[in-house]
């Protein structure tokens, strides 16, 4: 069974206020580098070693900034290299529903281009929710 993740991070964070998207805020810094809300959420999924494809939705024109933020977390870079994964990105939309649809459509194109075909299971997770555990992720996949 192949699994994929669509991690949504296309929102504007307007309700939170401030100059930085909430997904890009720092939750810790140390020997692993700068860990952002987004990289923490992503790493939870990477640490399970159960995903063949990972797609992140971003605001229009926001891929470079998302890549920069994620590159500062050494754990993410190591896990991607270890598992031979490349991150896919797609522009989100005006609502979370549109962003998820855009993400799934882009995932289908990316998976098809790889020759692997569409994954059997696609999990959707909010990139502003960094504390999901590997145990929770495994339980959801087992339930599916």
Structure description:
This protein is 40% helix and 22% strand. The protein has five helices and six strands; from the N terminus they run E-E-E-H-E-H-H-E-H-E-H. Helix 1 (37-46) packs parallel to helix 3. The model has no long low-confidence stretch (mean pLDDT 92).
Keywords:
single chain, 144 residues, two-stranded antiparallel ribbon
Outline of the structure:
The chain is α/β, with parallel strands linked by helices and 144 residues long.
Distance between the termini: 11 Å
Kindly state the number of beta strands: 6
Protein structure class: alpha/beta
Residue ranges: pLDDT <50 for 5 or more in a row?
A: none
Shape: globular
Radius of gyration: 14 Å
- Average predicted confidence as pLDDT: 92
How is the main sheet built? 4 strands, parallel
Helix content: 40-55%
Provide the succession of SSEs: EEEHEHHEHEH
In quaternary terms, these chains amount to single chain
Q: What count of helical segments does DSSP give?
A: 5
Strand content: 15-25%
Strand order of the largest sheet: 5-4-1-6
